[in-house]
Write a structure and sequence with these properties.
By secondary structure, the protein is α+β, with helices and mostly antiparallel strands. It has helices at residues 8-22, 52-68, and strands at 32-36, 44-48. A hairpin with a 7-residue loop joins strand 1 (32-36) and strand 2.
Length: 69
């Protein structure tokens, strides 16, 4: 989980949560956590146990499933 963002407060929070989630994951499973801002800034940050290309593929798959329903 290496992802640097320019907001130290959010970066620290993401790392804390990811450590808790990662320690409870069954073998062979991964996770992604999205954190976003409701205000007009539309900031979106994420942390994942997967490599970025793999996570992008899984996010695309997730979006396709949502648009089919």
């Amino acid at each position: 989980m290496t992802y640097e963002i320019d907001n130290p407060e959010i970066q620290g929070l993401l790392r804390q949560i990811a450590e808790r989630i990662g320690g409870q994951m069954p073998k062979g499973w991964g996770f992604t956590l999205l954190l976003f801002e409701f205000t007009p800034g539309d900031s979106l940050f994420y942390i994942s146990s997967a490599q970025r290309p793999d996570m992008v593929k899984m996010m695309q798959k997730f979006v396709r499933r949502q648009t089919i329903q």
